[in-house]
Every structure is written in C-alpha cells, then in structure tokens.
Amino acid sequence: MNMQRxxxxxxxxxxxxxxPAALAQGKIVLGFAQxxxxxxxxxxxxxxxxxxxxxxxxxxxxxxxxxxxxNQIKAIRAFIAQKVDVIAFSPVVESGWxxxxxxxxxxxxxxxLADRAVNEKDDTLWVSFMGSDFVEEGRKAGRWLxxxxxxxxxxxxxxxxxxxxxSAPAIDRKKGFEEIIKADPKFKIIRCQTGDFTRAxxxxxxxxxxxAEGKKINVLYAHNxxxxxxxxxxxxxxxxxxxxxxxxxSIDAVKGAFEAMIAGKxxxxxxxxxxxxxxxxxxxxxxxxxxxxxxxxxxxxxIFPMEVAAKEFPSRKY
Length: 318
Ligand code: GYE
Description:
Elements: H1 3-14, H2 21-24, E1 29-34, H3 40-56, E2 59-64, H4 69-81, E3 86-89, H5 98-106, E4 111-114, E5 128-131, H6 134-148, E6 156-162, H7 168-181, E7 187-194, H8 199-213, E8 219-222, H9 225-237, E9 247-252, H10 255-262, E10 268-271, H11 277-288, E11 296-298, E12 303-305, H12 309-312
Parallel strand pairs: 1-2, 1-3, 3-4, 4-5, 5-11, 6-7, 6-8, 8-9, 9-10
Antiparallel strand pairs: 10-12
Helix pairs in contact: 3-11, 6-7, 8-9
The protein binds beta-D-fucofuranose.
Beta-D-fucofuranose binds next to helix 3 and strand 9.
C-alpha cells in the first residue's frame, strides 16, 4: 500500500468516516464526463469505456451530460470535489473550458481529453488528447466525392448536415471537406445546417433542405451516420431514391451505416472509431505509474464505400 493511500485511509478512520471501497482496494478512480447518448457512435464509445474500465480494474465514475456543456462542467467539478485520480471527458463544444480545467489543475488532478479537443491556448491544462483526426475524415469524404464525380463538368449541388454547433468534429469535418472540394468550382455547398448529430434532427433538417431545393440537390454530406440515416428517411418520404437520386456521404461507419449501404441507400461512410476505452484505461494507468504520455494520440481509421459493405459487415465491432 502506498503512503498516500495509507494516510488517506488512516485519516478517514480517525475521523470516524467510512472508507470508500475503491480506496480500501487501492483502485484507481477515473471520472468520465460523457457528451450524451446522441448517436450510435456515442453509445459504442460509452460501452467501450465502461467495459474497458471493468477489465482494467479501474473504478469508473460516469456522467452523461445530455449534450449540455453546463452539465459536463458540473460533473467535472463533482469529480474534483470527490478527488478522483484522473478526469477524462469528451468536450461537447470546443470553447469555454479554461476555468474548470484550471480548477482541475489546481487540485492536481490530471485531465485526458477523449475523442474531442478543446480550444484553449494553455495546453498544460490536459495531459493528452486521444481521438480521431476529424479534418482528415472531412478530407477523405471530399476526396471520395471528387473521385466519384471525376470527368463530369456539370455543377454538383451539395447540402451539408453539420454536427453539433461549435464541436470539434463539426468544425473540422467541414474544414477538411471544403479544403478538398474547393479545388473544383463545380462543387457548391448550397445549404448547410446543424442536425446536432442525431437521427431526428437529421431527418427534420433534410426535410427542410428538400422543401427549399428539391431536385436541385445532388449530394448530401452528413457529419455522422445517424444524421444521414435520418435524412435517408426524409428523402424516401419525398419520393426520391437515396444513394441514387442523391449521393450520400457520411462519417463514423457504425453498423447502422453498413446496413444502409448494404440496402443500397448510403454511398459511403468514413470510419471514425469510438473504441477508445482500452487506450484510455492504459493512459490512466500510465499516468498513475508516473509515465509521460504523448500529447496527442491519433486513432487510425479507413473509409468504406457501399461496394465493400457486405464483405466488411461481419467484422465490424460497432
Ligand atoms: O462522429 C458523432 C458523435 O465526437 C467523433 O460525436 C464524435 C462524434 C461522432 O455523436 O456520431
């Protein structure tokens, strides 16, 4: 038993207070402030974190912020008050984290950014940021479209379903995609609106796009599969054929996207892996063992067009 733990247990006993099980067992305690349960991706991410914590013998305090930054900030403050060993969170939006991160730093609790980045100049406020390269995902989506429309000179009208306003994946996936398509003026984004990464909103916004632009729409670029799946419903209800009348590109490559591709309703999905749990638990253990972590850990991922969907489907893990 290390000194710190022994002293903490002795202090609790002397004060006549109960000794928490995790402390008695010498378990590492991790506080995780999750975004919510907005998408299939997020559900798989939560499941990965919970099962990896169990496997690693790490006590997990898990909080679901229901896509509200104020709830995430509250959860982080609660973790600080509970003196957890490490705090990890997936910031719903990029900005507005300085104050609470400084509070964690003052309390000497290391912070890991999981999945999404923050927009803060002082990078000593977190130990490591692990997750995907969202700009590159946007580029992959763009490159696929450029290749698909190669040789054609007619204008390509694109509608874009953005992720949560101000979130790292929404900002970066837009940026990467635009960076690629701007090379050819035939590509035009004619409408762009947020669907908040959910199926319901994706459907609703696509309905509005269809009402406003109708048959002018050639391509839908959705920042995640859930919004694309919602939009597919809207397209079908409008009497059009998804993936044929409108080319559909999305991101995540969750099972629902594979099902849509196999059914011939989605053209392509760029992979974004939610399986961050094992990596996160390893990082938590490394921090506690005094190791220095890389400031940035990037997830490796691919891209899946509908032609390979049936073959790939059985080996998909989320
Ligand atoms: O693409 C989307 C989710 O942050 C990478 O959040 C994540 C994104 C993911 O809700 O489906």
